[in-house]
Design brief:
With about 210 residues, the protein is an all-alpha fold. It has helices at about 1-5, 10-45, 60-75, 80-90, 100-120, 125, 135-145, 150-210. It has a domain at about 55-170. The chain is built from 8 helices and no strands. The chain is rod-shaped and about 100 Å long. It is found in: Cell membrane.
């Protein structure tokens, strides 16, 4: 087939092979450039390390925080004491730089809620300044504080609900990724299919028509 397309001369064969190699490598080169740009973008978005910031400043996962609260309550601690102990465990102390980090803010909010409850604040008022990500703990412990109900079931249900929501989000993201991969994969395979399957046939037909 190559000999037919090139006219049978060595120079024609060489030019045909070179053109085929370039066309076959084009999709790979485009995909490689896109990957390099993506890696460069991700590296530029990395947050630099701030002097004095600790690894413990990262926020504790909310399901883990709910487990800590449940463990403190099962050990016999009251709600304010459980909030205080959990706040200390997740890092309510100040870092070396003197500023409260992202993770320590959760601990500080839990300890502030505990102090407010001891001073006689109502349940919602004690949590007024807490971050929104602590809302599952706020809802799960309400019955224990206002009605004296056991909080174990509510804490467990809140943690399971968060995990279900995350799994659903992950499945949705995976489905979207599969859809987005169709176009790049098609861009890689379609030129090769056209080059190997269609171009030789069309050229052969053209040669036959011209020679006829």
């Amino acid at each position: 087939m190559i000999a037919l397309l090139s006219g049978g001369t060595p120079a024609g064969v060489a030019w045909t092979v070179a053109a085929a190699a370039l066309l076959a490598a084009l999709p790979w080169w485009v995909a490689r450039r896109a990957t390099d740009r993506r890696v460069t973008h991700l590296e530029s978005d990395r947050r630099p390390v701030v002097p004095g910031e600790r690894a413990g400043d990262e926020p504790v996962d909310v399901p883990v925080l709910l487990e800590l609260l449940g463990a403190a309550l099962r050990s016999g601690a009251g709600v304010p004491r459980a909030l205080e102990a959990t706040g200390a465990a997740v890092g309510a102390d100040r870092g070396a730089s003197g500023s409260v980090g992202r993770g320590t803010a959760d601990g500080a909010a839990l300890r502030a809620a505990a102090d407010a409850l001891r001073l006689g604040a109502d349940w919602d008022g004690a949590w007024r300044d807490a971050p929104g990500r602590l809302a599952p703990a706020h809802r799960a412990l309400r019955g224990a504080w206002t009605d004296g109900a056991s909080p174990s079931g509510a804490l467990r249900a809140a943690g399971e609900e968060l995990l279900r929501a995350r799994r659903a989000t992950a499945r949705t993201a995976a489905a979207r990724l599969a859809v987005r991969l169709v176009l790049p994969l098609g861009a890689c395979f379609l030129p090769a299919f056209v080059l190997v399957g269609l171009v030789p046939v069309l050229l052969a037909l053209g040669v036959d028509l011209l020679s006829g």
